[in-house]
Structure formats: C-alpha cells, structure tokens
Design goal:
Layout lengths: L9 H11 L4 E3 L2 E2 L2 E2 H11 L5 E5 L3 H11 L3 E4 L7 H9 L7 H12 L13 H10 L5 H8 L3 H15 L4 H14 L1
Parallel strand pairs: 1-4, 4-5
Antiparallel strand pairs: 2-3
C-alpha cells in the first residue's frame, strides 16, 4: 500500500482526489474549516465506487453510524492500534464494512432488540450533530449560519430540534451540553 496524497480540508481534498483517483480514501470527520461528513457525501456522489474509511478521534459509538449513513464503508478510531488500519483498508477494498467489535455489537443489538432505545446523540440528524458540534466550540447562531451557508432562522430551528430531542429546557442548557460533548470528543 502506498499513500498518494493528503489534505487538511474539503477544498484541498476534492481536487487532489479527482487528480490522483485513489483506490481508497481515508478521511476524518474534523477537517480544517470544513466537515468530513460533507466531504463523504460529495465523494459518494462523485466517486461512488471508491471505498471510504473514516479514521477519527471522535467517539465511534456516536459517529460510526453517522459516517456510514453519509456513505463511508468503515470507521476506525485514531487511538486504535496501527495494526488495525491495514485490515480496515483491506476489508473495505474487498467490499465489506469495517467497524470495531464494540460498534458491530451495538448495531446488531439495535437491530435485534425492538426495545433498545438510542442514546440521545444518535437521535440527532447529521446537520443537528454538526450544529451541536459548532455550539460546543462556542460559536453563536450567526457564526454557525455563516459557516454552514444557512440562515440564522434555520440554525435556530436546528437548535430547537436539538433541545426537543435531548429534552433540554433552555439555550444555556444546550450550550452547556454541547461544550461537554466537545470536551469528551
């Protein structure tokens, strides 16, 4: 295996991927000035046959399913042993999905058990998770709207949905929760 390139943002990654046409793409959820989930969705549209592995510091029990929904074929934690990276890449190159045993167990358990309820963060949509993450970085609605190319009213709508889904009573509780989630990531 050979690494053919690297990029820190979506803006850097897309032209490089178009030029190099890699056999597999390893991406992170957190990218400079951008979101790895958006990169995954764009890549799924442009290169649907190129397997994509997410390698991230973000908790796999929360983010692996989100990454798979976006189009990734696997998820591995950055803190995992380097010995897991090569098998993960080989697995997705062979058309399989690669997840840790913990995530696989949890997903199977969710499918089998109709009474299993999702943890609070898994109730959120990808965009709601994105807004929550930005709130955890102490960004206000105006900053979030500008960065995501949304109206402030739309950001407020997402914030209200998050509060409702997480049963939070106020904007202050939402911000406190978002900061705590950011610290644990």
């Amino acid at each position: 295996m050979e690494s053919c390139g690297g990029a820190a943002s979506v803006g850097e990654a897309l032209p490089l991927i178009r030029q190099l046409r890699p056999d597999v793409i390893v991406a992170d959820i957190s990218l400079k000035n951008s979101n790895g989930l958006e990169l995954i969705k764009v890549l799924r549209a442009e290169t649907p046959d190129t397997p994509l592995l997410v390698m991230s510091m973000h908790d796999e029990l929360v983010w692996a399913e989100v990454a798979l929904r976006a189009g990734a074929k696997g998820y591995i934690m950055k803190e995992s042993s380097i010995d897991q990276l090569v098998p993960a890449i080989r697995s997705i190159l062979n058309g399989k999905i690669y997840l840790s045993a913990a995530v696989t167990h949890r997903m199977i358990q969710a499918q089998v058990s109709s009474t299993w309820s999702k943890p609070p963060l898994e109730r959120l949509t990808d965009r709601e998770l994105q807004v929550l993450g930005m709130l955890g970085q102490w960004k206000n609605s105006r900053e979030i709207a500008a960065e995501l190319n949304l109206s402030i009213k739309t950001v407020e709508y997402y914030k209200q949905n998050i509060k409702d889904k997480l049963k939070l009573k106020s904007g202050a509780e939402l911000t406190q929760f978002a900061v705590e989630v950011a610290k644990s990531a």
